[in-house]
Design a protein that fits this description.
Oligomer: heterodimer
Number of strands of chain A: 15
Shape of chain A: globular
Strand content of chain B: 15-25%
Mean pLDDT of chain B: 95
CATH topology of the largest domain in chain A: Rossmann fold
CATH architecture of the largest domain in chain A: 3-Layer(aba) Sandwich
Order of helices and strands of chain A: EEEEEEHEEHEHEHHEHEEEHE
Shape of chain B: globular
Number of strands of chain B: 16
Largest sheet of chain A: 7 strands, antiparallel
Radius of gyration of chain B: 18 Å
Helix content of chain A: 10-25%
Structural class of chain B: alpha/beta
Strand order of the largest sheet of chain B: 3-4-7-8-9-10-15-16
Helix content of chain B: 25-40%
Number of domains of chain A: 2
Mean pLDDT of chain A: 96
Strand content of chain A: 35-45%
Strand order of the largest sheet of chain A: 4-3-7-1-2-6-5
Structural class of chain A: alpha/beta
Chain lengths: 235, 309
Amino acid sequence: MIEAELKKKRISGDYGFFIFKLQEKIENPDAGQFVMLKAPDEPILAKPFSIYSYKNRELVLFIKRVGRLTGRIFSSPIGEIFYVRGPHGNPYISSIDLTKRYILVGGGSGISPLNFFSELHPELTYTKLYGFKEAHIRKLFNENEQKHLVIEEESGHTVVDALNELISEEVGIIACGPIPMLKNLPKNAYVSLEAVMGCGVGTCKSCALKTIEGVKLVCKDGPLFRKEEITWEWI
Amino acid sequence: MGVDLSIEVFGIQFKNPIVLASGPAGFGFELQPYLDFSKVGAITLKTITVKAREGNPPPRLVDAYGGIINSIGLQNPGIKGFITEIVPELNKLNTIKIGSIAGFSLEEWQLLVEEMDKIKEIPLIELNLSCPNIKGKRRWAEDVKLTQKVVKTARELTNKPIIVKLAPDVTDIIEIAKAAAEAGADGLTIGNGIQAMRINVETGLPVLKLKTGGLGGPAIKPITLARVFKTSEVLDIPIIGIGGIMDWQDALEYAMAGASLLGIGTAVMVDPQSPTTILSGIEAFLKRKKIKRFRDIIGIAHRGGFSVS
């Protein structure tokens, strides 16, 4: 695994941006791909994190504090060494219709891969909608990004409400976020899934997903799927 | 001074004692970009059942203090799918392949052994009598008579070496190990995940959809290690030691307790390159101790340890 030194962090509540400087580069990551990140000690397993941005061995992750590993990352001092490997998973561009432009719909830490997508593929990006519940999140984003934020606490609208006002035949949807949000999307959306992963490369079968074509793996076959191919009851 | 890491067990020459444990490494192919299989002694392939299985619904994996609990549920393409889809690809992995099988009835065991016997790419067969993750099924390895029956049945159907994978969490593993050996097993794998669970306090429900799973990783190492030690004290049969080997020190503990081969599971999931890192660590240790052959340290804990010079 590659040494990743925590260089910078900016936190608000349970969300934060974390910049890691990698000792070696990871090979040409594209949007939708993820890295497996491990703390030097506990917890045991490495966990998947979507790439928010990557340039010159500098890896930016946008993380929500949920468990022991993320808790550890939040409380770590600058200079702390973590380990990463990747990129794993498939780039979004390998599975979407490239003749379309996309509304990128993110919920919480699900905005990560969408941001990377808009950075790398501006020509495929129609607009971005970043959904959050709490207004304090605004202070993590710069002026350019503010207009993309859909804050439930402010407007009473969810990101899916905001999406519904923009939908048209010509534009596609790529979404990443909590399951209830993804379930509320229109049929034709591409959804980027999170899953509990063991290995991240397709061997351990932890991140199984039932689809109309049988059981697939989020790490090896995804993370992007068409909404209608997923058996949602299994999730 | 070169160190000889090779070891001959079951009449087969392994270039080193590192074995990828059944499960976390799948059929090996996905790990190929990250792991040089020519540096691994063997891989125990994912367990095959008669019928294809989609495995248990997720979540199938959860962290536990010092370990992880999984309930994958033997997801596999079934013996037919294995023969048509997987076996033709196996020669891509430059290491010894151990075939792992699990039957749900004696007839199923029979069929699986017969089929495995025909596959020339697979020189050894592991009987997985101890998967902790099958809904509503008791593990064969919890019962002396059932263990004996399966091993005897397998013995009559193949001349390939048979390794029996035992459960570490049984009342008396030695009794079951003896029964397996008497019935014709050539070797034992000790052990497997230990039945375990976690509950989400917010929902008040088990985290895993199957409710319980098998605990693996560092947390079980001292437990499984003791089973290897106790079993090798009374039985002269090669043992694959498995359970929480995360680094070279863990691996050496198993060898010193009496394991001839060292199975790596959880560590492969954390870092696919860990088997080669562990092997280099073992090699460096042997050099430092001026021990020429890995096999000389197997069971040294039973023989008074290293002599002080």
